[in-house]
Design goal:
The complex is a heterodimer of chains A (196) and B (220). With 196 residues, chain A is mainly alpha-helical. Helices cover 69% and strands 0% of the residues of chain A. The mean pLDDT of chain A is 84. Chain B is an all-alpha fold. Classes of the chains: A mainly alpha (196), B mainly alpha (220).
């Protein structure tokens, strides 16, 4: 059992070890849906919700598998839970806001293969967080993901108006931008409890 | 999808080369970026990650191809994920048995092979429609293409950041490592630079093609 305080867990997950910019998890949606701020915000919210659901379920599953001594099934169970959580969010959004459903497009079902979600479940297991810590961790990771996505979307909205050499259009420029953001986030390294 | 026998591909060299070069999963299709950026901080990590992914790709591709007539269409994605997760568990325990040091260096990214979009993408787009042999060859090509991309990042980052390749120092002791290259931002920068390079090559080729066309048009 870890004894880290909850605010520290949150800050650590959101800023210091930001999943996108420091640990390279969830790069696909980060590059894919960061063209507009509004879509980015909604995508961030959907991902945050999936993270919370799968974090709580992963905690339960891990407890069950450890009691039954079936740890080798962990990965398969986690991914099944995440897939169901995504399905849930998808049905919910389709019902409440068809317009949002269309704008998120293929990236909504692809939250299943967002490595940030599975990574979250795996990290909280290896860090031995209890249920409350796990949920705070999920909240922090989700907030960090949203932060990175929004920063990138804001920058790319400005960039769309800029004139850049034709050779650097598209993914190459986005990656350079992400590198600069990541460089800035390294400045948070002194803030939390170091690596972990 | 067995009701579409006319889309069956015959086995050619192209089946292999396509995944390796023309449809390179990382540089052309921009898939599977997370492991590419995260574990390419040294050549050894990059190589082992590439080979582990290739194993999962070939294994799950073969199984999906063999079971393609039995998996109902509605639950295919879930079935593919379970098949992939099985192979990843095998790799996970395998690496743990072979080298604990490597296991620690790659960390959670071995288990995260499950969510590598390249593997699911291949299963859905290729293995579920094709016979066993072309699938294995195509998966092998894609896997090696992925390994190639990982290596091209890993070597550059290790060389610039550490002055070594595969742990063997290439420069004299006076070499001051460019530390940022083995840290997270370096991954973004080096991949961005490679994409710039490929863009430049592509644009140059297009320009030459149009110039050529212009010359022939003038000659006529």
């Amino acid at each position: 059992m870890q004894s880290e305080s909850l605010p520290l867990i949150f800050l650590n997950a959101a800023l210091v070890n930001n999943f996108v910019l420091a640990m390279f998890l969830g790069i696909c949606p980060f590059l894919g849906v960061s063209a507009k701020k509004e879509t980015a915000w909604n995508m961030g919210l959907a991902t945050l919700f999936v993270m919370l659901v799968s974090s709580a379920s992963a905690y339960g599953i891990n407890w069950l598998l450890t009691t039954l001594e079936l740890e080798f099934l962990r990965l398969i169970c986690y991914i099944a839970v995440i897939a169901s959580a995504v399905q849930l969010v998808e049905m919910f959004i389709k019902k409440t806001s068809p317009a949002l459903f269309r704008s998120l497009g293929i990236f909504l079902p692809l939250i299943t293969t967002n490595c940030a979600v599975l990574g979250l479940a795996l990290f909280q297991t290896s860090k031995e967080y209890d249920l409350v810590q796990s949920l705070v961790y999920a909240l922090g990771v989700g907030a960090g993901f949203m932060l990175a996505l929004m920063l990138m979307a804001g920058l790319r909205e400005k960039l769309a108006l800029a004139r850049v050499p034709s050779v650097s259009q598209g993914a190459a420029l986005s990656l350079m931008l992400a590198g600069l953001l990541s460089l800035a986030f390294m400045g948070f390294a002194g803030l939390g409890g170091g690596h972990g | 999808m067995a009701e579409l026998p006319n889309t069956q591909e015959t086995l050619t060299a192209d089946t292999f080369i396509r995944g390796l070069w023309e449809e390179n999963p990382v540089f052309v299709m921009l898939l599977g970026m997370c492991p590419v950026l995260a574990v390419s901080n040294s050549t050894l990590n990059a190589l082992s990650m590439g080979l582990a992914s290739t194993f999962v790709l070939v294994g799950s591709g073969a199984l999906v191809s063999l079971l393609r007539n039995w998996i109902p269409k509605q639950v295919r994605i879930a079935s593919y994920i379970v098949i992939i997760a099985t192979f990843v568990t095998v790799v996970d325990y395998g690496i743990q048995a072979i080298s604990l040091e490597l296991y620690a260096a790659l960390g959670a990214f071995i288990q995260l092979i499950v969510v590598n979009c390249i593997i699911l993408g291949r299963a859905e787009a290729y293995a579920s429609k094709q016979r066993l042999l072309p699938t294995i060859v195509n998966s092998l090509g894609t896997g090696l293409g992925f390994t190639l991309a990982l290596l091209s990042l890993g070597t550059v980052r290790e060389l610039l950041g550490n002055g070594s390749i595969l742990g063997i120092p290439l420069f004299s002791d006076n070499f001051q490592g460019w530390v940022i290259m083995i840290l997270p931002p370096g991954g973004f920068f080096v991949l961005g630079a490679w994409l710039l390079f490929f863009n430049w090559l592509r644009l140059r080729k297009e320009r030459q093609a149009t110039e050529q066309a212009g010359v022939t048009a003038n000659a006529v």
